[in-house]
Amino acid sequence: MEVSYPACSPSEGGGGGSDEPTIRLLVSSTEMNGAGNLMDFLDEPFPDVGTYEDFHTIDWLREKSRDTDRHRKITSKSKESMWELIKSLLDAWSGWVVMLLIGLLSGTLAGVIDLAVDWMTDLKEGVCLSAFWYSHEQCCWTSNETTFDDRDKCPQWQTWAELMTGHAEGGGAYVLNYFLYVLWALLFSFLAVSLVRVFAPYACGSGIPEIKTILSGFIIRGYLGKWTLLIKTVTLVLAVSSGLSLGKEGPLVHVACCCGNLFCSLFSKYSKNEGKRREVLSAAAAAGVSVAFGAPIGGVLFSLEEVSYYFPLKTLWRSFFAALVAAFTLRAINPFGNSRLVLFYVEYHTPWYMAELVPFILLGVFGGLWGTLFIRANIAWCRRRKTTQLGKYPVLEVIAVTAITAVLAFPNPYTRRSTSELISELFNDCGALESSQLCDYVNNPNMSRPVDDIPDRPAGPGVYNALWQLALALVFKIVITIFTFGMKIPSGLFIPSMAVGAIAGRIVGIAVEQMAYHHHDWIIFKNWCRPGADCVTPGLYAMVGAAACLGGVTRMTVSLVVIMFELTGGLEYIVPLMAAAVTSKWVADAFGKEGIYESHIQLNGYPYLDVRDEFTHRTLATDVMRPRRNDPPLAVLTQDSTTVEDAEALIKDTDYSGFPVVVSRESERLIGFVQRRDLTLAIKTARQKQDGVVSSSMVYFTEDAQQLPASDPQPLKLRRILNLSPFTVTDHTPMETVVDIFRKLGLRQCLVTRKGRPATHGSDDEPGPGVHHVQLDPSRVHSTSQTVSKGTGSRPAGSLWTRMKL
């Protein structure tokens, strides 16, 4: 997704918003930092003061201060009357109510999406005559004419060729089914990209890079709005049903966060505080993963490890509750029809052996290499899309990729079916009731063992045929996923990455199984694989490979392992999963620290400071302060000698996000910091509502204004919009510390002082009077930061600069 926005200061940018262009009031009547009511002459706060513009970053400290002040007022009022006590209790429980609503709605939407995807995916191949809204599996559930060998065939379900021509077999029927399969895929993808382009451009992509940026404090109005929620839900069904190499898991996180933002608007506690809103969104992300994989615990860990920027303990509890409710809701809907919550339930009857750690680790190496290849190739393609004419034709790109995918996928049964069905078959163990080609082994007619304990057998012709088809499917998935992820339709990456790993793992598993059968006397098999024993489970290798490839792309570790064993129910195999996940991350990190989501954040130029990054700056704040020696000084306001005309000229001639306020230009002792937006609104409102305020009126940032002659114009007192406690560092503070301060405290700005005065470069390279700011280059700090020096104006050329205004 390409976003164009003005450069913003460390203090500007942040939150996911609603569709409405109006900005909600975020300030209370008083604040601990001195920014309460807009002006002394106003009885009520002006609605836009203290809010944030689009594509700006929130001030975490200010939002925390507001919430503390609000909570203090509610607590004090609760002692006055019974009604105030009830209101305080409702306020305390509002967070749990929001979590409940998020879980219910996200679980319901996920269940509806699952059912719709199953039906529309099968619609490309045929239709159920008894009830057209039934999928293939549902249609044959009630049939009494289904045989064991042809369990997927029943009279009620007919392919399009059989329905139109009456013939189910033959070259003509194959060509007709082929044509209609491609036609349905093109129709679904065209509808998806058209709806996204016309109604909700923010509904495209995975959504997780933007969610990470929003949770770090960035404002993207409309990204979590009602229209985005509706269009993303509808187009996600269309995109997945089209057969493109994408999944619905990442977009479900976006859908759940849209639900969270929607319910935040019902409670002023969250709608008027962007910091509190982000606590809700973190919990909503957990609910999204919970319903995407049927993994509530994994969802909480995913939000904590991968998505959230600020995750207090109470958010952990509420995330757990939201994920629990969402999982219960999805289980009640039962979209998979198996009375289970998990997507790929497996039940293996053979333990794993220590010698198998070698192929598991090799799968981890493959996953790390695949993750590196995919990230570099996909980012290169997306960059080309953004910088060439290709980006101007998103509909044509989607149609072209869909056509290529459908034409190449139909001949291969492993690419024709939905990716979820493919992964489920690859994970399955070969029991006596399996009819898949992957289970076409040569059976011993004298075998009299229980059906759940089938020994290793030589592979039959069906297995070898399936291996060739899987090899072709592996190459196809690797290539086509690179071009699919990032198009202007909802597209997740979890399922395609798992499919690549599952295919590779199943191939490796079958190879190890046949080696163990034919060479059981080798030393590596001798101790644990006896003739006639069930030694190797190829499905387990597919599961380990899926975890390895997903970890290589996303760089998840703990949450990935938990999601995988929740997804499959294979708790016994947690050690192989851990070994593969850690190996995959090590290998991928050797080529680059950024996962796919961090890479897309950098590509799109989002201001994001990753709390996990390590910086090794050797410079001091004074070494990188701007403006430089020959640049004009950064403008300041004085506490009692600035006129309205001076302030308006300063606002007009500069584009800084705020201005330090000093005692006088001679002493330059720092008093506080005033935001550009608040100053602009204050002067504008004063001219409209306060009589006598003209260009020559004095602006006072002091508590008591000086006595002026009666002939002088009415002064303007702006003490209330002045931040009396801006965060400051000395000019000799190491830049490593400065970056850490911005990253961990979520500051909008940090003032550099020397002996209580703003520091600058003097004529002898010693700090002198004036005001400067620090500018960081993301290419040097290995990360795009969340702070940019200017609140308005044009976007910086090239990569997004991190500028900390001082």
From TrEMBL:
Keyword Cytoplasm annotated: no
Location, primary (coarse class): membrane
Polar residues: compositionally biased ranges: 781-792
Membrane-crossing residue ranges in chain numbering: 89-113, 178-203, 224-244, 280-304, 316-333, 353-375, 395-414, 466-486, 493-512, 540-565
SUPFAM superfamilies reported for this sequence: CBS-domain pair, Clc chloride channel
Subcellular location: Endosome membrane; Membrane
UniProt KW keywords: Antiport, ATP-binding, CBS domain, Chloride, Endosome, Ion transport, Membrane, Nucleotide-binding, Repeat, Transmembrane, Transmembrane helix, Transport
Membrane topology, from the record: Multi-pass membrane protein
Molecular function as annotated in GO: antiporter activity; ATP binding; voltage-gated chloride channel activity
Pfam families: CBS, Voltage_CLC
Region listing for Disordered, in residue ranges: 1-22, 756-806
Location of the CBS domain: 625-689
Coiled coil: none
GO cellular component: early endosome; endosome membrane; Golgi apparatus; plasma membrane; synaptic vesicle
Family: Belongs to the chloride channel (TC 2.A.49) family.
Protein name, UniProt field: Chloride channel protein
Organism expressing this protein natively: Cyclopterus lumpus
